[in-house]
Amino acid sequence: ASGQKEAAAAVPMAWWWAGQASGRAVARALHTFGGYGVSLEYDIQLYYRRAKAWSLLAGDSQRELIAVGNRLWGGVTCPLPECGEITLDFSLGQQADKMAQEVRAFFEANLTADLRAKAHHSVAGYDAAFSQKLCAAGLRYPHWPLEYGGRGATPFEMAALNAVFEEYGWERITGPVTNQVAFSLMGFAQDEVKQQILGEFARGEALACLGFSEPASGSDIYAAKTRAVRDGDDWIINGQKIFTTSGNLANYIYLLTRTNPDVAKHKGLTIFMVPMNLPGIEIQPVHTLQDERTNITYLENVRVPDKYRLGEVDGGLQVMLHTMEMEHGGADQYRLNYQSMLDNTIAWASTTHRNGSAIIEEPETRMRLAPVAVKHAVARVLCYRSLWASHYKVPGRSHFGPVSKLFATESYLQDSRDMMDLAAPWSLFEDRHGAGHIELGYRQSIGTTIYGGTSEIMRSLIAEHGLGLPKSRS
């Protein structure tokens, strides 16, 4: 309606999704009532029937997927009614568009043939010199406050920036992780360390990694056993951390430690910003299904000056809550992987021929692609809602991030399997071109349901903060 070429497809997309979502939601709601749910004495059975009936008023909603496919990829046009003034904007906005143009121009000017060959979705694609150029151009951490060398960019502008990084296949791990740590430094570090480390980050001279998870606790990060014991003006730290991605490149590890074992597990924690060049730190690589390297980091009698402590002693929970809100609210980084898989599947189907015509011209192919396009569109709206709520400090927003991450990553996982089937047998092979992107998406998708909080953790947070249900985690 606002002139976008996908507007006509949005109508059947919305109709199909509303029917799917309402029927599924009410079925699950009825299930929570157990046997009472199917009793005519309870109203839930009326909602169960009505949700399905309303979606059928215009006929079989599955046929709407045919219209979606034809309008998106078949060249079918459909006139839209006059809708008057449009007051809602579902885009990232004009400033975000300008940011995308600036970043795209930077990549075109600075991404040499060698760098294009080096580009990789993992930390293997990190290039220190290129990172320093990004910093000098104000494009590494533009959303930092002005006082720390940033430009005060909004989350919408950052989403546009990250989309361009994905467009050029440039890694989006070292920057976001270092940024996450940087904001904790701004809020909780002592002045000397704050100025020193933030300056190094801002110039592209240093990176950070996260030291949360441990072998015995996994996603239950507050069960950390890595011990920090006071010794005068220093702390002696012993323990180990897993999944310290970019630890092999990092200059600092943002380390969660236990400083008081005699209180509840959430209360005896303290955060340190530990230089990685201190004696007693050892890093071992862990290679993953997603063609990525993460690490195990061992700490043995590591002596850390107290100046590297963030927040109060035993006050690590407050620091972590700030950090985890950023991590749980950053689902758009996973949604971009989902979008890349969809875009590459469409490109593959448009350029690969079968029986004399492009595969995307087959009605069955469009029917398979259509629900993926719909679910990705829903994921994008949920991620943008989370960005909006975070930027404007919307009350009751704490579950928006988990909702967007859960939906985006679980949809990505499900759809990557179907796209692998669609592109078979081409999708059997690892490749940096064509159907190889689909195969990579299949391997990446399972990790997105684990990193940054597992889907089970996300469901627990949604139940607790969004639905007001009792806490399910100890």
Write a short abstract of this structure.
This protein is an alpha+beta fold and 474 residues long.
Summed over residues and divided by their number, the pLDDT gives a mean of 93
Q: Uncertain spans, ≥5 residues at pLDDT below 50?
A: none
Sheet/helix structural class: alpha+beta
Biggest sheet strand order reads 1-4-5-8
CATH level 4 superfamily of the largest domain: Butyryl-CoA Dehydrogenase, subunit A, domain 3
Count of separate DSSP helical elements: 15
What is the radius of gyration? 24 Å
The CATH architecture of the largest domain would be Up-down Bundle
N- to C-terminal separation? 49 Å
Total tally of structural domains: 4
In helices, the fraction of residues equals: 40-55%
Main beta sheet: 4 strands, mixed
The CATH C-level name of the largest domain is: Mainly Alpha
The CATH topology of the largest domain? Butyryl-CoA Dehydrogenase, subunit A, domain 3
What is the overall silhouette? globular
Strand content: 5-15%
Q: Give the H and E element order.
A: HHHHHHHHHEEEEEEEEHHEEHHHH
The total count of strands amounts to 10
Question: Can you put this structure into words, describing what you see?
Answer:
By secondary structure, the chain is α+β, with helices and mostly antiparallel strands. The protein folds into four domains: 7-73; 94-202, Acyl-CoA dehydrogenase/oxidase, N-terminal domain (Butyryl-Coa Dehydrogenase, subunit A, domain 1), CATH 1.10.540.10; 208-323, Beta Barrel (Butyryl-CoA Dehydrogenase, subunit A, domain 2); 329-466, Butyryl-CoA Dehydrogenase, subunit A, domain 3 (Up-down Bundle), CATH 1.20.140. 49% of the residues lie in helices and 12% in strands. It has 15 helices and ten strands. A hairpin with a 5-residue loop joins strand 6 (281-287) and strand 7. The model has no long low-confidence stretch (mean pLDDT 93).
